[in-house]
Specification:
Number of strands: 8
Bound molecules: cobalt (II) ion
Strand order of the largest sheet: 1-2-3-6-7
Helix content: 10-25%
Shape: globular
Amino acid sequence: MILPLVQTGDPVLRNLARALTPAEVLSPVIQELIAAMFETMRAAPGVGLAAPQIGVPLQIAVIEDRMEAPDRERFPVAPHVIINPQLTLNGERDVAFYEGCLSLPGFAASVARARSVTVECLNERAEPVTIQAQGWYARILQHEIDHLNGMLYIDRMESRTFTTRESFEARTIQFRQAIR
Ligand code: CO
């Protein structure tokens, strides 16, 4: 089921999402929600979707990057779910790049984020998982986990880089699929 996407301005995007118990993760209602989130993300299309973006204030996000032309900092990421994530930024350095969001369609801005992160979370079977990520995947994780904490990329962007997608496309050979 493809669900409607909540747009910026809705308080659900600005509140802290609630953590789930392992029993809740395994419940049919949450399993169906996860399936609907994958379907909604793929239809958008996007490379990540957090539950608050479909109006559900729970600590769940789905991620999948089918990037077909990998480069040094971006490579395909298999579909997976992060639940109750704990994010650690691995200090080495920040990287600034343009990103967008399905809850602010048609815009993008440059956001500095850690190049390398560690995420501890539960998967869809309520099993503890540790994810080590670099590059674009690390950016997706930081963006989605921000959603679970009521944050949007516009809170972190370099404000003078804020652009419409149209304007950005006019200035770049290829708009990298930076929409989440
Ligand atoms: Co987003």
